[in-house]
Design the sequence.
């Protein structure tokens, strides 16, 4: 089966600095893939290039065989790739329900939508456990709830692939566990997930497969246990999170 | 007069206009570029400088003393307004901009209220006109150009070479880090604002030495100041001087060769064009300090 | 569950309608004013205020909903006014045909200004709109006979509706009230539609909005164009009311006053533009101020509103009233308590 997202030879230079040096990565339909690497390894650049925030200097990104390289952020989202940010999670000045309503209004229906109607904004709030605060302003929510609202927003765009950039940053253990529980359910609803983070504990909970970036190149890719035992990876993380 | 004489004449006229524009533009480029405050009332600061000069000269004081008074008065006004108003808008520049629009209306009409809306002028502080070849050089224009050159050189040294200037640029790069390094960022912002205001006061004094002014003179002047600051690149004094020269000379020529009704259009048209093609200005600059938005 | 959802939806429609009600009541009262045989001076002032309010409703969509400030808005009004005058002079086009034509002209001008200005983006945008406004005034002044140069253009066409001459002051007043009502309803409809939600999303966070599939650039230009339509209609009404227009009416300083009015009233509330337009027009009459004094008062008001009441005067009053009477804060704590309990 061909991968849902095929990244090949993707590179990005900022001035003279190489942030991505020809990365190849395939995300398979239905998996939860983790992309890890220390700070400055190119994780966030990879995320930004795939989601259209930056234009790549070279290489290509194919989504279900379709070339989406260099598309604008809103076009990426409309093509069926949802994504969440570390920072901007929700529209603080608007109501919680209104947030999710907005998120569902600008994307085309998925091909399988007739057989399998997408959950309503209300149902999405139920899913992430925020329906009790549906009429509050998003800005008054505690940080953990904001993260969950961010997830609901991304889900409302009816993605078949969801990219999460450090989804658990700033969450306590209880909140992280809740989030992991939610993300694990997503493949069952036909959503492939790619998590970008440096938190190995989270990755071990979530992913069966890991790809490791260092200095803008992929240095390992495979089943989580094998990758974690890889001496190259251990060297990168020596004295780090492991 | 020979064509070449007229040409040189226009360059001189252009240079003196360029001087006043450059003084405003440096104020704008420093304040907007380094502190992020968008003060559209900067033109009114200039106008107040002119009015103070006019009042002082009318009261019988000499022009040099009047200039000093104008600089001090407008500098003080800048201090009060920064401490009282703009300081609270640093995180929301659009609010600061709106406040400055309110200030425009208030300052203009306070002047009208006390000193009527008519044109005001002072006798030329220097009346000598030199004749070199066929070219007539008014000494007052030379004075304006010379003062501007001196002041620009001084400000440039202050910003680029002094310890103060280095700290200032550090705080533009990253306000929080600069604050952590013990740089009193807020005090520096006040300092820049007062410096820019004082330059506007000087500009007003020099302007009224050249032309009559009205309480509404600030409006077009501030647009030229912003145009020059943006064309030159925000926070870039070199750029402001270069762009001010270009604009002043273009205006001088177009007035001298019979297109005077379009002079005000050049700055706007040029600014719009530059911002579209090169958003960071012709000579490069900051894009304004990073702002919370 | 489904039942509850439907009730919810009906509830939100009801809530939206209720937010329109105060404005409609106020406008109905305003429409009844001619019964008390007001002076001509009052009517003229009210007509000018109403014409401004129409443009302000457009500005409130742009600034209040989308969060974009235009400092060249009077220029868009001017395009509408000049379009009406030139159409009448050169093509014999009357008032009613001029309305859509002028709205289109202003919308196109808004697009021409908007595309490069929004490309520049951020805080430079306001400066760009200001510069375009100034530029338009200069172009109109130098337009020779075509634009009437600095003296401007005369417009002496009658305004008729179903055969009745509307040029009479009272009738023109009622017509303007009708236009203001349409503008208020149109702006209310935008605020409560999914389009309004989209604009608010852009106001709150452009990056997040784009990640949800919203074409931010196109919608920002769209909001600018929508505000241009309101401005164009306001320009036609102004040109036919005054019978004479000139460039200085549409330069940057009238733009500042428009921004001031929307700010004083509060840009996010449906009552805001109406309140701002009326306050700024009638305050000098009430306080018996001469034009110079009243402008100083406006300027001080604008600064005070921005520093102290960021939601505008009406927004501030509404909030204070809510806090004082309806016990809204208590309700909020109850809700939060319930949310906590659920967890």
Sequence:
């Amino acid at each position: 089966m061909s991968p849902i997202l095929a990244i090949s030879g993707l590179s990005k230079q900022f001035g003279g600095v190489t942030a991505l040096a020809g990365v190849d990565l395939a995300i398979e339909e239905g998996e939860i893939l983790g992309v890890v690497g220390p700070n400055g390894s190119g994780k966030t650049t990879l995320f930004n290039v795939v989601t259209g925030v930056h234009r790549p200097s070279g290489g290509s990104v194919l989504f279900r065989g379709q070339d989406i390289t260099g598309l604008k952020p809103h076009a990426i989202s409309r093509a069926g790739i949802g994504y969440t940010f570390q920072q901007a999670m929700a529209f603080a000045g608007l109501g919680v329900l209104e947030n999710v309503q907005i998120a569902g209004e600008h994307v085309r229906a998925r091909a399988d939508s007739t057989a399998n109607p997408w959950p309503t904004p209300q149902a999405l709030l139920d899913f992430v456990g925020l329906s009790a605060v549906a009429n509050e302003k998003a800005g008054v929510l505690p940080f953990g709830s904001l993260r969950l609202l961010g997830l609901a927003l991304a889900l409302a765009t009816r993605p078949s692939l969801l990219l999460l950039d450090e989804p658990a940053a700033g969450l306590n253990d209880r909140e992280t566990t809740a989030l992991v529980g939610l993300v694990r359910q997503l493949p069952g609803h036909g959503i492939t997930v790619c998590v970008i983070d440096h938190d190995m504990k989270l990755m071990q909970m979530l992913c069966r497969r890991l790809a490791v970036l260092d200095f803008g190149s992929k240095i390992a890719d495979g089943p989580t246990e094998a990758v974690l035992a890889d001496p190259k990876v251990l060297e990168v993380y020596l004295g780090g999170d492991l | 007069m020979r064509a070449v004489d007229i040409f040189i004449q226009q360059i001189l006229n252009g240079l003196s206009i360029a001087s006043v524009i450059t003084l405003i533009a440096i104020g704008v480029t420093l304040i907007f570029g380094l502190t992020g405050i968008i003060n559209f009332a900067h033109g009114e600061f200039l106008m107040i400088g002119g009015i103070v000069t006019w009042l002082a000269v009318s009261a019988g004081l000499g022009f040099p003393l009047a200039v000093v008074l104008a600089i001090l008065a407008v500098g003080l006004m800048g201090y009060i307004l920064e401490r009282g108003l703009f300081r609270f808008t640093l995180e929301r520049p659009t609010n600061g901009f709106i406040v400055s629009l309110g200030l425009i209306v208030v300052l203009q009409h306070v002047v009208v209220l006390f000193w009527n809306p008519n044109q005001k002028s002072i006798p030329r502080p220097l009346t000598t006109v030199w004749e070199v070849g066929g070219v007539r050089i008014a000494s007052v224009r030379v004075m304006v150009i010379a003062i501007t050159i001196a002041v620009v050189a001084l400000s440039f040294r202050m910003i680029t070479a002094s310890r103060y200037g280095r700290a200032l640029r550090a705080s533009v790069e990253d306000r929080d880090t600069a604050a952590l390094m013990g740089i009193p960022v807020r005090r520096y912002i006040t300092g820049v604002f007062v410096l820019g205001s004082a330059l506007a006061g000087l500009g007003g004094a020099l302007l009224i030495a050249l032309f009559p002014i009205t309480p509404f003179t600030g409006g077009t002047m501030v647009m030229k100041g912003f145009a020059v600051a943006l064309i030159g690149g925000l926070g870039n004094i070199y750029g402001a001087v270069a762009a001010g020269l270009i604009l002043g000379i273009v205006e001088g020529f177009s007035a001298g060769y019979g297109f005077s009704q379009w002079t005000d259009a050049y700055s706007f048209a040029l600014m719009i064009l530059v911002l579209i093609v090169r958003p960071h200005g012709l000579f490069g600059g900051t894009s304004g300090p990073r702002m919370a938005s | 569950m489904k039942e509850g959802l439907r009730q919810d939806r009906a509830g939100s429609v009801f809530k939206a309608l209720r937010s329109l009600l105060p404005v409609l009541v106020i406008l109905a009262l305003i429409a009844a004013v001619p019964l008390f045989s007001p002076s001509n001076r009052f009517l003229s002032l009210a007509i000018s205020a109403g014409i401004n309010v129409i443009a302000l409703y457009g500005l409130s969509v742009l600034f209040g909903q989308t969060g974009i400030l235009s400092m060249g808005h009077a220029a868009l009004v001017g395009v509408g006014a000049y379009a009406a005058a030139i159409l009448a002079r050169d093509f014999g086009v009357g008032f009613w045909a001029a309305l859509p034509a002028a709205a289109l002209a202003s919308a196109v001008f808004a697009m021409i200004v908007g595309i490069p200005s929004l490309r520049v983006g951020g805080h430079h945008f306001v400066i760009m709109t200001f510069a375009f406004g100034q530029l338009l005034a200069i172009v109109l002044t130098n337009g020779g006979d075509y634009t009437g140069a600095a003296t401007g253009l005369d417009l002496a066409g009658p305004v008729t509706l179903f055969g009745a001459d509307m040029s009479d002051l009272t009738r023109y007043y009622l017509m303007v009230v009708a236009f203001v009502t349409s503008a208020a309803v149109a702006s209310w409809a935008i605020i409560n539609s999914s389009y309004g939600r989209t604009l608010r999303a852009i106001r709150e966070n452009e990056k997040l909005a784009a990640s949800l599939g919203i074409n931010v650039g196109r919608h920002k230009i769209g909001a600018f164009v929508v505000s241009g339509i309101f401005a164009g209609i306001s320009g036609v009404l102004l040109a036919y009311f005054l019978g004479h227009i000139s460039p200085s009416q549409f330069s940057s300083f009238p733009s500042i006053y428009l921004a001031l009015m929307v700010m004083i009233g509060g840009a996010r509330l449906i009552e805001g533009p109406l309140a701002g337009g009326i306050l700024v027009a009638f305050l000098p009459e009430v306080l018996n101020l001469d034009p110079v004094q009243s402008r100083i008062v406006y300027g001080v008001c604008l600064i005070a509103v921005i520093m102290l009441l960021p939601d505008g005067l009406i927004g501030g009053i509404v909030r204070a009233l809510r806090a004082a009477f309806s016990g809204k804060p208590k309700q909020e704590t109850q809700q939060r308590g319930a949310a906590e309990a659920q967890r």
Q: What stands out?
A: The mean pLDDT of chain B is 83. Chain B is about 70% helix and 5% strand. The domain at 3-277 of chain B is CATH 1.10.3470 (ABC transporter involved in vitamin B12 uptake, BtuC). The CA atoms of residues 157 and 226 of chain B lie 22 Å apart.
